[in-house]
Amino acid sequence: MEENNDNNQNNENVENVENVENNNIPSEELTIVEENSTEEEVETVNNIKIANDAVAMYVGIAIAEIPGVYGMSGALAGITEAISGKRNYTKGVKVDVNEKTVKIDVNIIVEYGARIPDVAFEIQTKVKKSVETMTGLKVSEVNVNVQGVHAITEKDEGKEEE
Questions:
Q1: DSSP letter at 137?
Q2: CA count, 13 A, side-chain hemisphere, 7
Q3: Which DSSP letter does residue 23 get?
Q4: Phi, psi of 64, rounded to the nearest 5 degrees
Q5: Local confidence band at 36 (pLDDT 50, 70, 90 cut-offs)
Q6: Residue 60: which of 118, 126, 116, 121 has the closest Cα?
Q7: Which pTM was predicted?
Q8: Domains observed in the chain
Q9: Residues 79-138: pLDDT tens digits?
Q10: With contact defined as beta carbons under 8 Å apart, do 72 and 109 qualify?
Q11: Which among 114, 118, 143 has a CA at the least distance from the CA of 128?
Q12: Which three-class secondary structure state does DSSP give residue 61?
């Protein structure tokens, strides 16, 4: 009798796996929510909830790959990054997700010698493509705010030589 019960459970598990693989999951079961998000921060797109922090992470990673960007500007995030020792990709990124669109503001520090309009255009292009591809949201605007320029110092040159 127990063996029969185990077989029934196994059949249900196999059926559930097949439903997942075949995308036969009811839409109300598909929910993606960032771990530390509040209900107010979470927006819905086709019954999939994407937190502002999740979108901000895609933005930060896309910006980190762009030449001419020294770093992101954000005081509070900089403190937590220094304490934890981990890179915070959402530092300097503000995301406002609506029904199906997203507005993005980024605060950057450019490297000395980089042409600011070129860097800003590259950020806008790459961020828009990344967010739209990864989330399915339409990016309505990407505002780039240049907060400073990082000048190369002797201290920085010493690090590069090592």
A1: P
A2: 4
A3: T
A4: -60, -25
A5: low
A6: 126
A7: 0.63
A8: 50-161 (3.30.70.1350)
A9: 555 555 666 788 899 999 987 899 999 999 999 999 999 999 999 999 999 999 999 999
A10: yes
A11: 143
A12: helix
Q: For the beta carbon of residue 44, count every other beta carbon within 10 angstroms.
A: 12
**What's the gap between Cα 46 and its chain centre?**
19
Residue with tokens 């605007």: 141
Whole-number Å distance between alpha carbons of 129 and 89: 17
Nearest to 96, CA basis, from 64, 35, 137: 137
Return phi, psi of residue 12, to 5°.
Answer: -65, -45
What is the distance between the alpha carbons of residues 161 and 155, in angstroms, rounded to a whole number? 10
Both tokens assigned to 142: 């990407």
Taking 3-state DSSP, the helix, strand and coil percentages for the chain, each rounded to the nearest 5, stand at 50, 25, 25
Taking only Cα atoms into account, the Rg of the chain, rounded to an integer number of angstroms, comes to 22
- Sign of the four-CA dihedral 48, 50, 54, 58: positive
* Angle (CA) 81 32 34, round 5°: 20
